Amino acid sequence: MTAQGDCDPRFARVREVFEGNFARGEELGASFAVYLDGEPVVDLWDGVADRHTGRPWVRDTPVLSYSCTKGVTATALHMLAERGLVDVRGPVAEVWPEFAAHGKEKITVEHLLTHQAGLPVIEREVPVEEFEDQAAIADRLAGQAPIWEPGTAHGYHALTYGFLVGEVIRRVTGGSVGEMVAAEIAGPRGLDLWLGAPDDVTARAGQLSASTRTTTSADGTGTGEDGTASDPGAVDAGGDEGGANRALDAVMGGRGPGDPLYEMAKASLDKDSLMNRAMGNPSPGKLKGGANHPVIMRAGWPAMGLVTTARGLAGFYRDLVAGDIVKPETLDDAIRRRVQGPDRVMFVDSSFGLGYMRSGLTFLTPAKGADSAFGHTGLGGSIGLGDVRHGLAMAYNMNKMASAAGSLRAFRLVEATYNSLP
């Protein structure tokens, strides 16, 4: 098999890895793009955009990239901070007074960006009728109390991150994150990147797919967030304790209690765990086709709603790394590690700057990029990555979701890219 697209001869190994992912049967459709010092050096794609119809994956096939969205949302916030419209270190309640309720008056915007706010779960079930009403969902969070003391620990706010940061942006600009992204990031740069996809984009988008579904998500539909067993590609525990234990053993291969990866997998099989509660409300699984449903793509949830091509997301990081979206000093401060260590929601160690993931178990990078890479991963295996030191920007997206055991597809591509540098 020969992948479609272009690849600079210096990055021939990247093409080999991309094609190898398909040869091993790990892909349906996928794309990978790399910029080096602002110039395109890799733009590859291949496979099937829709396994039901056989529609091919073409150069401009976009796909929902889940939590890769968070890096774009964070950047929109930093643009406002540069203009003096938001104080990242100031209380959220300065721009969102209702948020101060239930002891939240000291929670800062930085706490939101670093997953330290103690609000990883929306306690009351969000009905489908509110899926396109981000302000209503944010209002639910304003009426809650934190489940840990803000600033004392971090835990992945898989979905609530977007509604929280998004409401700060809405209070300042009067519009949604998606509107700001379209007007000030994607539109002026001609990037194939939408947070709130129009119908014509939805119609040609890749369809997320997996061979199995789990029955253990928060609402029993099999839809979750960011690589846990509640995603559509996870093992099926069969709805019984014995089945869950067998599934856990199959996923973990000998790991035991106390091991963070074991505890993460165990939590993913428990519909009442903090992890699944954080990742299952609001649930795209309430709609036919889950995250493929036009309502989800149109809603533009600021934590997981990004619809983009790999070239579009890599182009975003290209311009971010070049200092064309925010000032270099703003980005340098934003990617500085603020938290690192055990994650209250995910169990494994995670590390964040102001809205961007840094190298760790949740954002795997090769040694050459360990101190300089930043960006965000997404459910199923997608990734967007920037690296100022090496002048790199890259993105990978696909439609075959990774299982609970995870996937090394993106890491192999990132590693091959770094290894191809002079």
TrEMBL record:
Transmembrane stretches, start-end: none
Region Disordered, as annotated, extends over: 205-251
- Composition bias type Low complexity, residue spans: 209-237
Keywords carried by this UniProt record: Hydrolase
| Keyword Hydrolase in annotation | yes
- Listed GO MF terms: hydrolase activity
Q: Which residues form the Beta-lactamase-related domain?
A: 18-412
Short name of one Pfam family for this protein? Beta-lactamase
Specify the protein name: Serine hydrolase domain-containing protein
